[in-house]
User: Fold these one by one.
Assistant:
Number 1:
Amino acid sequence: MMSQKRKPMIISIVLILACLGYLAFTNFGENLVYFYTPSEVVALSPEYYGKKVRVAGMVVKESVKIVPNSLKMTFQLSDGQQTIPVYYEGAPPDLFKEGQGAVVEGHWDANRQFHSKMIMAKHSEDYMPLEMKQAGVNLPKKDLIKTLNVGAD
Amino acid sequence: MLEFGHFAVMTALVLAMVGIATPWIGLSTRNGVWVSVGRQAVLLNFCLISIGMAGMIYSFVTQDYSVKYVFATSNSKLSLFYKVAGLWGGHEGSLLLWAWVLSLFCALAVMIHWKTQPAVMPYLISIESTLLTGFLLLILFLSNPFERTPFTPPDGKDLNPLLQDPAMVIHPPMLYLGYVGLSIPYCFAMAALFSGRLSEEWIKTTQRWTLFAWLALTTGILMGGYWAYYELGWGGYWGWDPVENASFMPWLIATAFLHSVMVQETRKMFLVWNLFLIILAFSLSLIGTFLVRSGVLSSVHSFATDPGRGLFILGFLTFMLCLSFGMLILRSSKLKSKVVMESLLSREAIFLYNNLFFVTAFVIVFIGTLYPLFIEVMKFQKVSVGAPYYNAVFMPVAWGLILLMGIGPYIPWRKCSIAAIKDILTVPFAIGFCALPLLYVMGMRDMYALAALSVTFFTGTAIVRDYLQLTKMWADRYQLKKSSAFLKVLRQNPRKTAGILTHVGVLVMTIGVVCSTLFQAEKIQAMKPSESVMLNDYRFKLIQIYPVTGSNWSGHEGFFEVYDKNNKLVASLRPQKRLYEVSQTPTTEAAIHQIYTGHLFVTIPDVSPDASWVRVRALHNPLVLWVWYGGAIMGLGVLMNIFRGVIFSLGKKKVVVSPPVAPSVEGAPPLGAVG
């Protein structure tokens, strides 16, 4: 008697959850964006060309070249070992600066160029991607502690 | 002064520990004096931490840069307002503010409920003191704002320019009020678990606390959205950033809780579930603090990246979680509800679905927020979950919730006949469906937007239908005019009136979100003076670029004129690119012109070195203000709910002589009768 009454409720709950679970599952995979270092990007195999990825690195000093009166600019992104050329189109964020960390989102192509329309710069002034630290780049000790957890976005 | 404050906070830590222990001694020795000692400890703690706060503010105002924290978040060029706000401009001060709010609420709760809830007090004092001890330990030993440097720097490093904004000054305290406000119902719930008085009394007592916490949390989140909207210059108010999610998760669960408690009040069901929800909601507040403060989620908000603190908060959190959920599991056998759900067509069933949807929404956000952490630990790979995931999955849940909003309040408890259901739902469904082709003809093609607006119409109609019907009924019965009958209907059930007003706010917000997202027009391009850019029907013309300076910044300003399609001047806009001199931080200041309830929005994110051209970002966000108007209506509804006893009795006194049956729950029956 009681289970009779509960049946439609349980069925409907399972149905709703199944639908939402399906939605979540199908959408989750395709919206995952992976982070790489410039070294990893350089080593990407051709099937990854054109796929959306994020790259974290330092903007090489004196590498930013702005194309006047356009949205285009180019710069070099480095992790201390490898340096990749980034072709960017758009308006860079406030904290984008030479010699500072940045995360660029875009794709790597067969011409060994990285094309991006989105740059994310860190809030913190003493930001340095985690990978830089692993690469043995010298940092003052105080900064090392602060950068332990940084590196994503 | 500062050392005095520091000493006061140290004393507070000792007293907080006293506050943990004495109530238990009082309970085991059955001696009320011990509990009174706990009460004094709680009240004194508020005074002591206030002295600590005063000491910090004094250092900020007197520009004492030998204090490390003042040095890091303040500067002599700041106005007094931002000097004081510098207190929560960084990690250490934010925690002190957290602790202060906690001590304030705890003292208030003890004073308000001391007489009416004597049986709860020992537990309340002890648990609140445990929380306070945790935070004070963190403040004094791992992130001490009172710390001094051996030398005195001439000037401070400046408050982060992005935080130099009125909305941002109020946003963090608001969130903390919400987070900490949830601790009161949580403590009452824990007290119920410990003492075994597991009736719904704790829910009735803490109803206003929960509503207040919810109001503060909602305001905080919306303010954060508004700040992001114009200060960050990306023209959006919600980006599914991990830190935004961290404040959204407790909100979702607190909202579920606010709904499901009604079932327990009326039908004595969902006993375990409500305890679970409030414990989860407060735990999520702590997790939110943990996520933001430990820096594990690297996002624009995390300004502390010190693993030691993270470890402490994680340990503290684990302790609180084990304690709370452990107690719940121990007691759950006592909490079997004797009432069973009778029908799928009943209000309690709708509440069940409401909770199902809220919790699912929470799980969706939770997975998206924590999955990257999980992957990093497991695979040493870094990923991020993009906003499209949240949008695609969260939106259907939101429609479900809006749909339920149009059914739940109008369907009776226990069970409802098919005929009654038809009567309630036919008109709203018809209108909801008719809206679909209409909107399609109007040019909406996005499936998600169509679905969202269709359910919004459904629920809007359901609300109107219900009030029309009730008004007519009262008008007929008492031979009243329609208008006075309507007022009578509103007064008849203040709690419903307030609740429905909040629902109306949600509908308004939904329309704002859908339209501002769907019809948003955006252009990014490089422009020289006298060039134009077209956006929907508006033409943005750059007139000139010139240098400007402020008290602690310098930069460039672009002067734009906006024309409509008849070439009539609509607005002059002056966006700026600033460089804050002390910290050498650039910021982009948006210029906004309100048009109807939408915005024309321009920023100049990049000015060329010779200022001959700029990169321009122009946006037209139609109906975007509806998002915050909706929020304001929601807030109004909740305020009305909190003060419903006062508001609704005002007018009533003229009509009826007997005191209104104010749903005041503070004066619950004496404890002995219940336990």
Note: Chain B has a mean pLDDT of 87.
Number 2:
Amino acid sequence: MREVIAMAVESNIRHNIPPKFFVQFNRERCILCKRCTINCSYGALSFNGERIIADNYQCVMCLRCALMCPQAAIKIEVNSFQYAPHYNYDDRIRRIIYEQSGSGGVLLASSGCDLPYHHIFDDLLIDACQVTNPSIDPLREPIETRVFVGQKLPQLTPEMDSRDVTLEMEFPPNLEIQEPLIVGHMSIGSISYNACLSIYKAAQEIGTLAGSGEGGLHKDFYKYKNYIIGEIASGRFGVDMKYIKGVAAIEIKIGQGAKPGHGGHLPGEKVTKMISETRMIPQGSDALSPYPHHDIYSIEDLAQLIGALKETTEYQVPVGVKIAAVHNVAPIASGIVRAGADFITIDGFRGGTGAAPRIVRDHVGIPIEVAITAVDQRLREEQIRQNVTIFAGGSIRYSADLIKIIALGADAAEVCTPVLIAMGCTVCQSCHRGLCAWGIATQRADLVQRLDVNLASKRIMNLFKSWNEELREILGAMGIDSVESLRGNKDRLRYVGANPKIAEVLGVKHAGE
Amino acid sequence: MLESKAILDWNTISAKRNSTPISYKELNASIRTSIKNNQRRIKLMEVLGQRFIGAGLECTEKDPIEIEINGIPGNDLGIFMDGPTITVKGNAEDQVGNTMNNGTIIIEGDCRDVAGLSMRGGKIFVEGNGGYRIGIHMKEYQSQIPILVLGGAGKEFFGEYMAGGILLALGLKFKNSHVVNLERAVSPNLGSGIHGGKIYIRGDVPDSYLGVGAMKTRFSEEDIKILLPIISEFSKNFKIDEDFILEKAFTKITPGSHRPFAGYYTAKPI
């Protein structure tokens, strides 16, 4: 009886909600090569013996079919179907209610928040030199973009005798990155083997770091270990001595911008043989990451795990902490510094995810712009800013955001979605389905092999290079010869938005001031 | 390759200097130095709350490391440990065997909260009682099946989030050098969120004690085969009569489902 009701509800859903996308064919151009049907991993396209037909309900607008069509005969359109206009209960709200009243489930989403919250970045303009101070030609003069990750000593105490100056001090471990940009944490499991490999290869070539995500490190990737930040999350998946001692830096993941305060849940069907080996869990079992770390209920407890990791690595490896940007981010960050972290990653509410409840992804946290400002300000006031490197993540979309977030107080930024887009992701936001037609957010071997590792890593390298060049262009125009001098240099930003309160919170003057 | 006598002799390290406890940093450094000098049997004296003892120490069965702790070790005893044997002549604090990969920890006393957190392999034997959330998120992988045995009783959320391995609570109590039975070996919210592994409780478990997703399962011949060697090792460690332990029946708790939250989410595009 229950099944019958379930089926009735299922069919009810289909009738209530119109398909979101429509696949349009130009029948004159179509040569029936059926390449689109092979490429569609969502089961939207098939050949009925006469022509290609579409099940529009299955389409997610990943555009694989359209871009693979040799005849450019396919076009995907957002369904123009509209419910009777209502500003308050718009189509999106009505779709959510129809869906939830059908399934009774928690809506799942992936990628970053897709709601049109205003970007503070877009209200900030950058300064440049005119007459009174000279700008620098970035193509012909040196501009330093290297960043050192880790704790800095407040001062050097050299010993001098009549001839020599000696510096016998113990320096905390630091890592050098060639530009103030790293790849954020995406685990093998959330993205494919080929996607991970492309990222690590690129990180090595660029001379920057890439996050492992919380799924451990696949045995093949240990050759890139000097460029990998190993994440330790509440599930402790894949965390053993080889991992702890192998990676360049360790990051304790407390939270993620897309789902602050939320755990992780890799469903059993995604735990393939490879994922099982990397995470060190049985094949096919659910991989649940508890919501909190159950050995961390306080700053003191966090200090304890940091201490344990430092003790285990004999103080040779920087240990950092990643938190989501939440309302009280500044005092939390202060606590993290005092707990002994060498770097902090703050992930803004727009940050991406392989899967998160939509309600959390879209409505929890604060923007990275204000979070970084608050943290930088607080740490400066407490005179502990030099104790950490701050990474900012959570929708650093392009180089302008990178430059502005550094000026607001970050040492460097971390990016994920732009890296995925560089590899070919079309941001269709279906990562949680595990069917990525571009071979990125999937574990299905036939789909994974679609991602050309050499090409993808080259494209990531190009992206990083161009961002760095654009950063140098702006630094040159501002007459700044080192990115470290841009950090927290809010005097070189002006606000042009509509809300002076934001300018006040950011500590940025309004244009004209 | 045991060639010199020095290897077999216990190297005694005091955790106190001038009647003040030394820091955990210094204590762990002297343990590492001792191992580097091929003195792999280490006796720590007057330990008083030093954390992370044995953190990340690695050894194989062929070339073992043994640590005896006299006093009370601090939190995270044997964290990330992979192989050594640690014996505590007294109580231990929180998070014994945190994310441990292999090895044995024997505690001749009580342990506190979250012992065996996320442990993937090895064994922990506790003679006395445990705190809250013992064996939380224990997991297993291939031949690695972690075992945690609590001689006494565990507090709430015993075996929470458990994903693999074997947890055992015996409900024993020492009284005037006799062993007697406690009324209950566990508290409510037993195995809350369990999705793998097995929990064995000596004695009854009221249904109201079962946590989310935990289920009582029939105790079978198979389970006796699993339990006997574990109980025998426990009895040997603490010199407790094995037959006394086996006098009372065991309750077996397993996950109600390996996919407790399947169907919880809806993945349709909105």
Note: The longest strand of chain A covers residues 319-324.
